[in-house]
Design goal:
The chain is of the alpha/beta class. It has helices at about 1-25, 75-90, 105-115, 130, 160-175; strands at about 30, 45, 55, 65-70, 95-100, 120-125, 140-145, 150-155. The protein has a single domain, classed as 3-Layer(aba) Sandwich (Glutaredoxin). The chain is built from five helices and eight strands, in the order H-E-E-E-E-H-E-H-E-H-E-E-H.
């Protein structure tokens, strides 16, 4: 009988600790101290969705841009999708997407349903480019300057006021102002 009480106590304790962790851990990690911040983006070459055009690192150099890794199977990507498109328009900055380990048909359906704010979408079917960018999951968003250097990096969905404010502050530091 004593074992059952102890087992029940440990189970309840683990559930409570898990809930505390979920409640008090932010859903996104936004930082300017990411290992990628201050580094030039890695070289890559991907086929692009819906065309024969290659999408590579040279495509996004020359002016500041947002680059996001996302997937149609990612629920958090749906949450930030509209906000990323609005931020792109608000600041007049191109938004590039890299579909991470995704199916082209599912991706096309997803974009048809939620809209396509992207300048170009590269297809990282095997996840190799994501590895080069040191992503740990999707979504992850990078603010890249005109020289191809990462200025800001968000791991997770951009939906909290704090994360959005951090991105907008980084955009302002690059001299970009709302239209």
């Amino acid at each position: 009988m004593h074992f059952k009480k102890w087992h029940t106590f440990v189970g309840i304790l683990l559930i409570c600790l898990s809930l505390v962790y979920l409640i008090y851990t932010p859903s996104e990690r936004h930082t300017s101290s990411s290992p990628m911040v201050g580094k030039e983006i890695p070289s890559f070459s991907l086929s692009s969705l819906g065309s024969q055009r290659e999408f590579d690192q040279e495509e996004i150099k020359g002016r500041p841009c947002l680059l996001t890794f996302f997937a149609s199977w990612c629920f958090s990507c749906r949450i930030e999708h509209k906000m990323l498109g609005e931020t792109s328009q608000k600041y007049g900055i191109p938004l590039y997407g890299i579909a991470f380990q995704d199916n082209e048909e599912a991706l096309k359906n997803w974009l048809s349903k939620f809209g396509d704010p992207y300048t170009i979408i590269g297809l990282d079917k095997m996840g190799h480019v994501g590895s080069e960018f040191e992503i740990i999951g999707v979504p992850e968003t990078f603010l890249i300057d005109e020289n191809g250097v990462v200025q800001y990096h968000v791991q997770g969905a951009l939906y909290s006021d704090e994360a959005i404010q951090g991105l907008e502050t980084a955009l302002l530091k690059l001299g970009l102002t709302p239209r």
